[in-house]
């Protein structure tokens, strides 16, 4: 795709017409840029015009024109489309699609949202952020006023990348409530800053109050040492996500894609429950393993006591009960001339007794079906529970 068309700013931003084409009709919001509702006279359609602060020099103009070209080529159903961009007389402005509908800021002002709706909004916005981060773009100014509801009730993310068009440190001009700790320090700002800001937005929606209210350095610096207080009565996915998203250290925060995974359907493979939850988990694992071991021992003891092997009752055959009563030889007759002493009777070698018959081996006891079914059911419940925990 080619470069987006460049229009002209005539008579400065103070006039009611930009580039001979866009008629300003009232300011919608203020932030990094002032956002105005306008009408595109050439195409006869409503648009939003984002007017950046003055002071753009030629070097900045070339840089932000390239950035605007990148924004114009983003394509996601959760984004507000970019139509046009221009720099003239040290002013720059971006023309985008006008999404008719209340902002999340308007919604939170008049009502509290249910937790399942907050979780859905968080998953949708995280999906948009994951896409723009993959394209090398950082929102930099995520707050409720930049989340707009379209006619279908879907949240659309506005002002993506607009903060990157502004020269100097990335510090939103309107409010400090959603700044990340690294923005407060003036350090490098990357995708983790958007994840942190989204965490504060969702936390505000859940509690009905801003975690870091007020303006100025002191209000902004509070988040450098005090992490947000996340209520324990939130659903597990939402609470787990908020604790991780608002970590002071950007390196420990999940990516936007991981946040989407958590809020849309549970933990990913690289994510684990919090340390407190892991401790409770191992207690249950050990308890269940002990229960299984006791159950197995009961089954073995019961089956072993049902049938004991009996000793053989048939006595082995011996020479005494098989002989015919003895076979003693008669004494030798006397010799007239010599009386020989009578020789003692030689003992008869008894027959070698036959080997006794080996007793039949006892039948292997059969475990009753009820015990087997109970053990299998308990084991299945245990494995299902483990798969959910890990």
From TrEMBL:
State which Enzyme Commission number(s) the record gives. Answer: 2.7.11.1
* A Pfam family assignment: Pkinase
Q: Which residues cross the membrane?
A: 282-301
What segment(s) does the record annotate as region Disordered?
305-333
CDD domains per the record?
STKc_PknB_like (cd14014)
Q: Outline the extent of the Protein kinase domain.
A: 7-263
Task: Recite the UniProt keywords alphabetically.
Answer: ATP-binding, Kinase, Membrane, Nucleotide-binding, Serine/threonine-protein kinase, Transferase, Transmembrane, Transmembrane helix
Q: Which GO terms describe its molecular function?
A: kinase activity
Enzymatic class: transferase
Q: Which InterPro entries match?
A: Kinase-like_dom_sf, Prot_kinase_dom
Tagged with keyword Protein biosynthesis: no
Q: Which PROSITE patterns match?
A: PROTEIN_KINASE_DOM (PS50011)
Q: What is this protein called?
A: non-specific serine/threonine protein kinase
């Amino acid at each position: 795709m080619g470069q987006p068309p460049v229009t002209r700013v005539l008579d400065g931003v103070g006039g009611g017409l930009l580039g001979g084409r866009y008629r300003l009709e009232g300011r919608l919001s203020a932030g990094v840029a002032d956002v105005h509702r306008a009408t595109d006279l050439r195409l006869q359609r409503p648009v939003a015009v984002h007017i950046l602060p003055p002071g753009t020099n030629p070097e900045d103009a070339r840089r932000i024109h390239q950035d605007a070209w990148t924004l114009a080529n983003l394509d996601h159903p959760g984004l507000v489309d970019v139509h046009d961009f221009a720099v003239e007389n040290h002013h720059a402005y971006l023309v985008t699609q006008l999404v008719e509908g209340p902002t999340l800021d308007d919604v939170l002002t008049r009502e509290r949202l249910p937790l399942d709706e907050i979780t859905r909004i968080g998953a949708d916005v995280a999906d948009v952020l994951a896409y723009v981060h993959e394209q090398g773009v950082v929102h930099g100014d995520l707050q409720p006023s930049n989340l707009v509801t379209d006619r279908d009730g879907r949240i659309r993310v506005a002002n993506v990348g607009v903060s990157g068009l502004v020269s100097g440190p990335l510090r939103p001009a309107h409010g400090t409530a959603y700044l990340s700790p690294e923005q407060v320090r003036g350090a490098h700002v990357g995708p983790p800053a958007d994840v942190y800001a989204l965490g504060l937005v969702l936390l505000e929606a859940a509690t009905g109050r801003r975690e870091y209210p007020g303006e100025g350095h002191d209000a902004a610096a509070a988040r450098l040492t005090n992490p947000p207080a996340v209520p324990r009565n939130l659903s597990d996915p939402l609470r787990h996500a908020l604790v991780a998203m608002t970590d002071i250290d950007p390196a420990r925060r999940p990516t936007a894609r991981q946040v989407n995974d958590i809020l849309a359907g549970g933990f990913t493979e690289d994510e684990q429950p919090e340390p407190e939850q892991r401790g409770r988990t191992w207690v249950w694992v050990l308890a269940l393993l002990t229960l299984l071991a006791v159950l197995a021992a009961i089954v073995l003891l019961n089956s072993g006591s049902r049938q004991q092997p009996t000793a053989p009752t048939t006595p082995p055959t011996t020479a005494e009960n098989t002989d015919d009563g003895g076979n003693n030889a008669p004494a030798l007759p006397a010799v007239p001339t010599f009386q020989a002493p009578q020789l003692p009777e030689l003992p008869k070698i008894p027959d070698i007794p036959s080997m006794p018959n080996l007793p039949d081996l006892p039948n292997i006891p059969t475990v009753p079906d009820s015990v087997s079914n109970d053990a299998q059911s308990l084991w299945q419940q245990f494995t299902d529970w483990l798969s959910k925990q890990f």
